[in-house]
Design brief:
alpha/beta, D-Maltodextrin-Binding Protein, domain 2, 8-stranded mixed sheet, two-stranded parallel sheet, 13 helices, 10 strands, globular
């Protein structure tokens, strides 16, 4: 073999070896290619947990209407989530709630008997008192309206019920609603206690409405609890809209000097929560979706005189 042929053969072998070497080089794998473009995602941040207060438990004594209407079922979880406090709710009449405050057995009150509340504060039992909201009282009864109260003012309606001897159900529990009812009997200068047609339940608003429906009786109730229970009642609204029927709620912190067991910090946190703009917005919308109207009107920051109150 001459040199020329040998050179050609060697050149061919060189080209072949380079080609084989190139084919043997590892191609980027799918995984390695992907790794070049992987963007490391930061771990999803867990919701910031609210640090538990030093004393996380508070006792709220409140009227049954805030419970029976369902409002507290919305607000209490909100408060607990935002603050880390745990609320023990005791739903009783306003009179009993104020008594619990006087005895130091509650930290904060949500009540609706303004004149009794003023007496409570003047007695040194309360530390802070804030206007929260209002709705109204109404008189409901059988659609037939046997005492013909529709269109009357409240005092005249009570006179008509008395004169007709028409069945009437009273809570009889010293609640804010009961106090309002008693005030109308007093204005009419009438005492129905002991009359065969007058029934006292000693129970909350929802239970008393049920009794009135069963007896086809008249009853004074707050609007919110009536609407929340309307589908289960055979009662119609017969009197509403009178200025004397306003039902105003305040939140009161119990005087911490009454007992070292009073959780004033927790009570004040709840009171401030009730008048906070976010909470007031929730109150303003509560009931609208289901009933087409709010069950309570937010009042935080208003002049009490706008609601006919001296303080």
């Amino acid at each position: 073999m001459n040199r020329t042929k040998l050179n050609i053969l060697l050149s061919l072998l060189l080209v072949l070896s380079l080609t084989l070497a190139a084919c043997a080089s590892p191609a980027p794998t799918e995984a390695s290619a992907t790794e070049e473009f992987v963007v490391t995602e930061s771990a999803t941040e867990a919701p910031t947990e609210v640090a538990a207060p030093a004393n996380p438990n508070i006792i709220l004594a409140t009227t049954t209407s805030t419970q029976d209407s369902g409002l507290l079922d919305v607000l209490v979880p909100m408060f607990e989530e935002q603050t880390g406090y745990t609320v023990q709710t005791v739903a009783v009449g306003t009179g009993e709630a104020l008594k619990m405050g006087e005895e130091g057995n509650a930290d904060v009150l949500l009540v609706h008997a303004p004149s009794s509340e003023v007496t409570f504060m003047e007695g040194g039992h309360g530390q802070d008192r804030f206007l929260v909201m209002h709705n109204d009282f109404i008189i409901v009864g059988p659609a037939e309206d046997p005492a013909a109260i529709k269109g009357l003012d409240p005092k005249d309606a009570f006179v008509a019920i008395y004169n007709a001897g028409a069945p009437f159900v009273s809570r009889g529990d010293d609640s804010g609603t009961h106090k309002k009812e008693v005030s109308f009997w007093q204005k009419a200068e009438l005492d129905p206690v002991g009359q065969a047609w007058f029934f006292e339940t000693g129970q909350g608003m929802g239970a008393s409405l049920t009794v009135a429906s069963e007896k086809q009786a008249y009853i004074l109730t707050d609007h919110a609890t009536y609407l929340a229970n309307k589908d289960n009642l055979q009662l119609e609204i017969l009197l509403e809209g009178n200025n004397t029927l306003l039902n105003v709620y305040h939140v009161i912190t119990v005087n911490s000097a009454k007992s070292d067991k009073i959780n004033y910090e927790g009570a004040l946190a709840f009171a401030n929560f009730m008048v906070a703009p976010e909470t007031q917005a929730v109150i303003a919308e509560f009931g609208v979706e289901k009933f087409g109207q709010p069950l309570f009107i937010p009042d935080a920051g208003k002049d009490p005189a706008e609601l006919g109150l001296d303080s």
